[in-house]
Amino acid sequence: MSDVPPYLHRLSVPTPFPVGPVNVYLVEDGDGLTLIDVGPRFTPARKALHEGLATFGHRLRDVRRIILTHTHSDHAGMAAEVVEASGAQVLTHPWNFPELADYSAERERRLAFYAALMQEAGMNPEVMAQIAAARRGFSRFAQAVQPDLPLEEGTVLYLGGEPWQVLHTPGHTGGLICLYQPERRLLLSSDHLLRDVSSNPIVEPPRREGEPRPKRLLDYLAQLKRVAQMGVDLALPSHGPPITDVKGLIERRLAFHRERAQQVLDVLSGGERSAYEISLALFPDLDPINRFLAVSEVIGHLDWLEEQGKVTSRMDGPIRRWIRRV
Fold first, then answer.
1. What is the DSSP letter of 57?
2. Containing domain of residue 315, as a range?
3. What ranges in the chain are assigned the alpha helix state H?
4. Which residues contact 159 (CB under 8 A, 6 or more apart)?
5. 153 near 97, Cβ under 8 Å?
6. Are residue 108 and residue 187 in the same domain, yes or no?
7. Do 87 and 117 belong to one domain?
8. Predicted structure pTM score
9. Residue 125 and residue 212: Cα distance in Å, rounded?
10. Phi, psi of 38, deg, nearest 5
11. CA 236 – CA 229 distance, rounded (Å)
């Protein structure tokens, strides 16, 4: 099994979200520090980050690089504050640049996209309004930051004097990256692999207007299979404990999604349904944000089933209704 190198340290940073703390990784190099993710713009997170750095004899001003694995606020929300305090460079996948650099505009674009998508899914307008209000409330946990350098698939970064490969692993988000150290067979898996909860491949808008909506669950499943073939001995995720049985975990995740897809088909055996109606059948009692995530999950599985030729759909006014193929 891989060991954790002495230059790499985990800092547990609280978040205001149900997922709980985020694991921020500190890399000590001779020329300064690298932070892999930073946590949300949230007073307890700010305090924990300062205290975590101090544990190893460092201050925020010692940070030279910030690597953002993706744009979610529990990972990237405090990046602008760290840059202001330290002058650090921000590195991330180029697909993340627009959302990070113009956070407010991109959030409004996404709110409009999700409103249209949830309407097509057949969601109750009152629930849609509650979701929009909650998502707007989350905006306070992040602010815009200008990325400096792109991290493309295959880029090699030196951390602690060792080469780490950038893996572009779209799924949970389109711009998510993992970092892999091949000699140690060690993966920093971000939210791509989490030991205790399934990563939710969230439905996202297309990167450019007029392009088709990306099918993030299909991306996620493909990237799970890719990582399973890499021979990773140890994965350090962004939430929860280390993962020592990477291949076994991936097999369980793939089985979970096969089972969920079958559950969606079973609901459709009773007749055509909207994505919202399917989510109600599978998950009857949820708050608005978890209802949004449930509908997103259902849409992802419908994308997968449609790809396999097992379902089709028709528009009924503004609502898309799904039909099981016989």
1. T
2. 104-138+254-324
3. 43-55, 73-76, 79-86, 97-101, 103-120, 125-138, 216-228, 246-268, 275-282, 288-307
4. 7, 8, 27, 29, 34, 179, 181
5. no
6. no
7. no
8. 0.95
9. 25
10. -135, -15
11. 17
With CA atoms as reference, report the closest residue to 33 among 54, 19, 48: 54
Q: Tens digits of per-residue pLDDT, 128-143?
A: 998 888 888 888 999 9
**Residue 1: band (very low, low, confident or very high) from pLDDT cuts 50, 70, 90:** very low
Is 74 among the domain residues? Answer: yes
Each residue of 68-90: pLDDT tens digit?
999 999 999 999 999 999 999 99
| End residue of a domain, out of 185, 211, 244 | 244
Q: Quick one: 275 and 190 in the same domain?
A: no
Q: Classify residue 249: in a domain, yes or no.
A: no
63 and 184 share a domain?
yes
Are 289 and 308 in the same domain? yes
- Sheet of 273-274: strand order equals 273-274, 319-324, 311-316
Q: Are residues 154 and 186 in the same domain?
A: yes
Q: Is the pLDDT of residue 31 over 90?
A: no
Average pLDDT, the chain: 95
267 within some domain:
yes
- Among 119, 135, 169, smallest CA distance to 299 is for 119
| Both tokens assigned to 38 | 């930073």
The per-residue pLDDT for range 178-229, each reduced to its tens digit, is: 999 999 999 999 999 999 988 989 999 999 888 999 999 999 999 999 999 9
State which of 244, 263, 282 marks the end of a domain: 244
DSSP assignment letter at 214 = P
What are the DSSP calls for 114-148, one per residue? Answer: HHHHHHHTT--HHHHHHHHHHHHHHGGG-------
Residue 114 sits in a domain whose CATH number is 1.10.10
CATH number of the domain bearing residue 236: 3.60.15.10
Count Cα neighbours of 89 within 13 Å in the Cβ-side half-sphere: 8
- Is residue 36 classed as helix, strand or coil in its secondary structure? strand
Q: Are residues 97 and 108 in the same domain?
A: no
> Which amino acid does the sequence have at 213?
R
